[in-house]
TrEMBL record:
<feature type="transmembrane region" description="Helical">
    <location>
        <begin position="109"/>
        <end position="134"/>
    </location>
</feature>
<keyword id="KW-0812">Transmembrane</keyword>
<dbReference type="GO" id="GO:0008324">
    <property type="term" value="F:monoatomic cation transmembrane transporter activity"/>
</dbReference>
<feature type="domain" description="Cation efflux protein transmembrane">
    <location>
        <begin position="10"/>
        <end position="217"/>
    </location>
</feature>
<keyword id="KW-1133">Transmembrane helix</keyword>
<dbReference type="InterPro" id="IPR058533">
    <property type="entry name" value="Cation_efflux_TM"/>
</dbReference>
<feature type="transmembrane region" description="Helical">
    <location>
        <begin position="77"/>
        <end position="97"/>
    </location>
</feature>
<dbReference type="InterPro" id="IPR036837">
    <property type="entry name" value="Cation_efflux_CTD_sf"/>
</dbReference>
<dbReference type="InterPro" id="IPR002524">
    <property type="entry name" value="Cation_efflux"/>
</dbReference>
<dbReference type="GO" id="GO:0016020">
    <property type="term" value="C:membrane"/>
</dbReference>
<dbReference type="InterPro" id="IPR040177">
    <property type="entry name" value="SLC30A9"/>
</dbReference>
<dbReference type="GO" id="GO:0006829">
    <property type="term" value="P:zinc ion transport"/>
</dbReference>
<protein>
    <submittedName>
        <fullName>Cation diffusion facilitator family transporter</fullName>
    </submittedName>
</protein>
<feature type="transmembrane region" description="Helical">
    <location>
        <begin position="192"/>
        <end position="211"/>
    </location>
</feature>
<dbReference type="InterPro" id="IPR027469">
    <property type="entry name" value="Cation_efflux_TMD_sf"/>
</dbReference>
<keyword id="KW-0813">Transport</keyword>
<dbReference type="Pfam" id="PF01545">
    <property type="entry name" value="Cation_efflux"/>
</dbReference>
Amino acid sequence: MSAGGGTKAILAALAANAGIAVAKFGGFLFTGSSSMLAEAVHSVADTSNQGLLLLGQKTSQRKPTPEHPFGYGRDRYFYSFVVALLLFSLGSVFALYEGIHKIQHPEPLHAAWVAVVILLIAIGLETFSFITAIRESKAIKGELTWWQFIRQAKTPELPVVLLEDFGALIGLVLALGGVGLTVLTGDPVWDGIGTACIGVLLGAIAIVLIVETKSLLIGEGATREVLDEIVGQLESERVEKVIHIRTQYLGPDELLIAAKIGISPSLSVAEVAAEIDGAEARVRAKVPAARLIYLEPDLARGRTATA
């Protein structure tokens, strides 16, 4: 996926969350619902997060410099990691604090129907954003399950938006449940319970994102399927075996490959150079992300390829 991959999903989420945040804050001021306040802060966090994802896409396209000879592709991983931290600190921690406070000191709601209307509208907008993210993701998900896609995707923005939108929808349902139970029972403690549940949900999603984006940030190699494809393309009649190989993603669309290949000893220097060029061309034809390939010719001595 290109550097702008997932931009449509990000923009859809940005527009939806910005509008929802304004409506939720209005609903909180009108009703005093802590669930509405927690959801409003959640939407502000999500809006900021989408802005950071767009910033990461832009800065990652900077040209390489002497200080950063491999470019800035990992900016997208860095900003996705920041998004996960913000979701945890600004969304989860605040919702937990507000929920516990309202459980300990419940306050009655005013005009709860306003909160219900706003939450129903927000569910509609978040559903639109979520469907957009799903459509964008299907192009690269392939046969993976959604959980496998989130765990294995090298493009960070779409998993982030998918989990954010999923969390937002569940959070809205929890907020709606908290407000609804408060109205039905007349006990405002349910509003606080709904808020605390939103905090737990956001915390769980944030932890998943932190773990996954941290792994990308410090450097992930090619998956076993991609690695097998690379090794298969490197080996030929004149390349007896791949002695060892290392791969690492410098960005979602840029894979670094370094390998030592066993060359037939009967080849001349010119033939070795031609075989290396051919091996690089074969790999790039099958693995477009393989932008940087460094091959070291050697004689095979019974060693096997390692990842």
